[in-house]
Amino acid sequence: MTDGSAQAVVRIQGLTKTFPQGNVTALQDIDLELAPGEFISLIGPSGCGKSTLLRVIGDLIEPTVGEVTVNGKPARGARNDGDYGIVFQDAVLFDWRTVAKNIALPLEMLGWERARRRERVEEMLDLVELSAFADHHPWQLSGGMQQRVSIARALAFEPALLLMDEPFGALDEMTRERLNLELLSIWEKLGSTVVFVTHSISEAVFLSSRVVVMSPRPGRIAGTVEIDLPYPRAAETRDAPRFFELVTRVRELLRSRGEHLLPEEEAALE
Ligand code: ADP
Ligand code: MG
User: Fold this and answer.
1) Across the strands, what pairs with 43?
2) Of 60, 131, 228, 265, which shows the fewest CB atoms inside 10 Å?
């Protein structure tokens, strides 16, 4: 962690978020700082405020109390400057646009010229291995392919910060593991900072340089675990004794703050 210098990509100070509907306090007293190039996972039981935290960072909703800065500016300014890309749980592609045009959309919004757009879209299609599908429409693709399109779209303008909300949650195990590896190689190539929401302990440990464990509602930070497994990570990383130790440590942190978990919530965290 940085010491409050201007280095932080994201700085969250004293964040509390209350939704007036039902008077739900989704987040309470969150302090968190992200250094450039970190890969952070937010993990916690369903309803603990992971998506809410991501949305506050992405300026999709406002804090009730506290401050969020991205690249040293208010989240709103960072959004207007196109400082980050967002990938949601569902791909959220536009069905009437081709794959290439979906990826080009943020570039159009940022005012990139046609030739530069085309070049970048080709690079991104290559990166997610979908070059042959540039002219297809989203509904012609599998769920995993759609998710890769949405990742390509979020990465196309090389955002310094990538916000991902359970992007692989709906995919089968094998696709998920493959996309985990793809995401890591893209991240290593671009050197961006990632905030990744998941409820899978093993996914969080596999991907991250740091795992932030959240407690059940109202969401607070129960603790963080530095993941000292070397990069680049590979399928074998999951067999390393250290991997199991770190998984256990995250699980213990979840349990220690998770007295209120329902059995099915606990099961969902495995
Ligand atoms: P998670 O992503 O960890 O499952 P969420 O951030 O989606 O959790 O939700 C945290 C809590 O805030 C939940 O109790 C949820 O019902 C509530 N919540 C989220 N969004 C809203 C909203 N727009 N209005 C009212 N309550 C909300
Ligand atoms: Mg969520």
Assistant:
1) 198, 213
2) 228
